[in-house]
UniProtKB/TrEMBL annotation:
Superkingdom in the source lineage: Bacteria
Compositionally biased tracts (Basic and acidic residues): 46-56
Pfam families tied to this protein: CAP_assoc_N (PF14504)
Membrane-spanning intervals of the chain: none
CAP-associated domain: residues covered: 69-206
Taxonomy of the source species: Bacteria, Bacillati, Bacillota, Bacilli, Bacillales
The organism of origin for this protein: Macrococcus brunensis
Full protein name: CAP-associated domain-containing protein
Disordered: annotated span: 46-65
Signal peptide (UniProt feature, chain positions): none
Amino acid sequence: MYNMKKQTEIIMKNIVIKMLLVLAALIGLFLLFYSLGDFNSLEEPEQKNKTEEKQKNSALSSGPGTYVGGSIDDWTEDYGYPERIYQADNKYQHYIYNEKNALYDVRVRDGQIGMIYATGPEADIEPFRINQQAAEIFRGTSIDTEPDVSSEDGDYHFELTEVDLKTQLLVQYDDIYAQVYIDRQTGKVMAARFMTAPLLVQMLPYTAHLNGQPLERTMRIEQSVLQEQNAQQTVVELINMMRANYEIHPLDKIENNAPCQKENSITAYDSAEAVNQWLNQEQREKMLNNHYNSIVAAVSDCYAVSYRKN
């Protein structure tokens, strides 16, 4: 009888011990799960913030970019009236200011400025500088290599290639976009273009997708003779400003009424883009060669130039 009682007590103790062990294990698992969940709840927002939060540049407070989106009257009050005005392809007008050491191409539509391009040794392109090393921009500026732009047509997604970063960098300042033109060989800033989102979307200077679908860039439309003549003049003036940036004498323009031959030409959005392409191609050697004295430009549905020695 005593032995049976003893055995029963032992069995009960074992059962109690097992129950306590199971309970302890359950409590341990609960605490482990809770602590991991609590850790994740702290970690995930931090990771999410790192992913979603993109450093942004402050809105421009000075320089040509501050006029973009505003009235042309504000610009002319400070810079006066242009040397030339001619029609662009996109219902905008070119207001050309060709000064001794600075050139400004202001795009105007219905009295509003949509874009300003500037180059020349004394051109104001703040927050950048002509002949500034582009590497300085990368050190002090937030640059998004895959910017998204919303428009009436939908959402545009741009992708800047390695070549773009070295020749036509894009920087966003609030609702204004700055395209920085760079001489790839020297790494120096040669010009800058400030524009609104609609003009950036219209220009499509980079690989782009609209609502997830790849876009093909549509180039120039047919221009009037007057437009072509003005575009020729702008090409020559821009090339002379590039030469001035490197302290090389200007070229004399030789009048030309013939259309450009496509086998010796390039296609571009406008004169400024054409000149930047030449600057970063083999033609750079001729553009900046001090042995040439004159230039012939041809503009129709393409751009072409040839250099002459007198």
